[in-house]
Amino acid sequence: MIELNRISDRVIIARFTENIKKLNVVIAANVKKELTTVIENGCNNLVIDLSNISFIDSSGFGALVTIFNHAKNRGSRVLLTNIAAETMELVKVTKLDQVFDLYASVDDALDSII
Questions:
Q1: Burial tier of 59 (Cβ tally within 10 Å: 0-12, 13-18, 19+)
Q2: pLDDT of residue 24
Q3: Is the dihedral angle over the CA atoms 90, 58, 96, 108 positive or is it negative?
Q4: Which of 16, 65, 69, 87 has its CA at 20 to 30 Å from residue 98's CA atom?
């Protein structure tokens, strides 16, 4: 479901596999569990690549907020990249663009870390 790519001791990129198109109630709990575990295991910067995700429901947003808060409480960052245009509209309406670190690409997110 999620592929993890360790860039360094401080940075991990999480990508959804190609067969996952929706971050919704069906997978939100598993995503939350897997990515909070990544943070607990010492990841300082978690880059979540949403390029394969075309839809996020309230459970999906809830999982992302929980992951963000979990990271923040541990002095880590969560960076979201490649958000679909329709999803970005929801992010802005819900004012989550003021909460998350958002980047157009994984490379942009990585540049902000270094």
A1: middle
A2: 97
A3: negative
A4: 16
Per-residue pLDDT tens digits for 1-31: 999 999 998 999 999 999 999 999 999 999 9
Which CATH number is 2-113 given?
3.30.750.24
Q: What is the DSSP letter of 50?
A: -
Which residues, 6 or more positions from 64, have their beta carbon under 8 angstroms from its beta carbon? 23, 48, 56, 78, 80, 96, 100
Cα gap 63→90, rounded to integer Å: 15
The parts of the chain modelled with pLDDT lower than 70 are: none
64 vs 84: CA distance, rounded Å: 15
